[in-house]
Amino acid sequence: MTKKNLYIAPSILAGDFGRLADEAKRVEEAGADLLHIDIMDGHFVPNLTLGPKAVAAINRASSLFLEVHLMIYNPYEYIERFVEAGADRIIFHFEAVENVEEILAYVRTCGIQVGLAFCPETSSDFVAKFLNKADLILLMTVNPGFGGQAFLPEVIDKIRFVREACHHLKIGAGGEVVKKGEILPPYLIEVDGGVDDKTAPLCVEAGANVLVSGSYLFKEKDMAIGIGKLRGEV
Question: Of 4, 47, 75, 190, which residue has the fewest beta carbons closer than 10 angstroms?
Answer without folding.
Answer: 4
